[in-house]
Design brief:
By secondary structure, this protein is an all-alpha fold. The chain is built from twelve helices and no strands. It is elongated.
Length: about 240
C-alpha cells in the first residue's frame, strides 16, 4: 500500500522535471533568437524550430510571442540577478552594492554576448525583466541613502538613472568596440551622480571584483563593518 501511494508522487515529480527542462529548452532557444535579431522576428513556429520541438509543444507553454518575450526577459534577469544578490548578500554598504551589481551585469554582457544582445534587444519592451532589475537596484539605493552615501532627492529618478545606464552599457558592450573598463567607468559615473564623492566613487567602482561563486562581504572589501557607527560616519567609510 505504501509503495502504491508513492507512485503518483514519483510520476508527478518526473513530469514536472520534464516540463521544466522543456521550458528551459524553449527559453534558451528564444534567447538565441533574440540575440540574433529584433524581438518582432520571433514567432512561435520559429521558436519550435529553433528548439527542435513540435509546434504543439510550444503552445503548451506560450500562447503568443509577447508571452515568450516576457518569460525570456524574466529568465535572463532572474538567472543572473539571483547570483549577484547571493554573492553580495553579506555586503553592508549600499554604494558598493550598486557599483558591484552594475559592474557584474555589464561584464556579464561582455563575457556572454548572446545573453547581452538578448537583454539589449528586449529590455525596451520586456516589462517584467525591468521590474526584476529595478527591485534589486531600489533596495541598494535605499540602503545607500540611509547610510548617507547617496544624496538624491527622488528615488524613482535615481532608479531610472541606474537602470538606463546599466542597460545602455550592456548594449554598448555587445554592439560597440570592446572597452575592458567600461563597467567600472559606468559605475563610477553613476555613483557620482547619486552623490558619492569623486575619490570614493572611483575606489568603490574599481574594487577587486570576485567571482560570482565567491560570496562577498565587508571583510573582503577591506572595509570593516561599523554597525554601531552613526550614518554620517558610515558615509565616510
Amino acid at each position: 500500500m505504501a509503495g502504491r501511494k508513492s507512485e503518483p508522487a514519483v510520476a508527478l515529480s518526473r513530469g514536472h522535471k520534464k516540463r521544466s527542462r522543456t521550458r528551459t529548452q524553449l527559453l534558451d532557444a528564444a534567447t538565441r533568437m533574440y540575440s540574433r535579431g529584433d524581438s518582432s522576428e520571433v514567432s512561435l513556429a520559429g521558436l519550435a524550430e529553433e528548439a527542435n520541438l513540435a509546434n504543439g509543444t510550444v503552445y503548451n507553454y506560450f500562447r503568443s510571442r509577447e508571452e515568450v518575450m516576457e518569460a525570456t526577459g524574466v529568465d535572463l534577469a532572474d538567472r543572473f540577478s539571483d547570483k549577484v544578490a547571493a554573492a553580495y548578500a553579506k555586503l553592508d554598504n549600499g554604494a558598493q552594492r550598486v557599483a558591484i551589481g552594475m559592474r557584474w551585469f555589464v561584464r556579464h554582457g561582455q563575457e556572454d554576448p548572446v545573453w547581452g544582445r538578448a537583454v539589449a534587444r528586449i529590455s525596451g519592451t520586456a516589462k517584467a525583466m525591468k521590474s526584476i532589475l529595478a527591485n534589486y537596484i531600489r533596495t541598494d539605493l535605499r540602503l545607500g541613502r540611509k547610510q548617507g552615501h547617496f544624496t538624491f532627492d527622488d528615488e524613482d529618478v535615481a532608479l531610472d538613472l541606474c537602470l538606463a545606464t546599466v542597460l545602455a552599457a550592456v548594449r554598448t558592450s555587445t554592439e560597440g568596440p570592446f572597452i575592458s573598463d567600461h563597467p567600472e567607468k559606468c559605475a563610477e559615473m553613476v555613483l557620482r551622480a547619486l552623490g558619492v564623492g569623486p575619490s570614493q566613487s572611483k575606489r568603490f567602482a574599481h574594487m577587486p571584483l570576485p567571482s560570482l561563486n565567491e560570496p562577498v562581504d565587508d571583510a573582503k572589501t577591506g572595509i570593516a563593518k561599523r554597525k554601531q557607527a552613526p550614518l554620517a560616519q558610515k558615509a565616510r567609510t
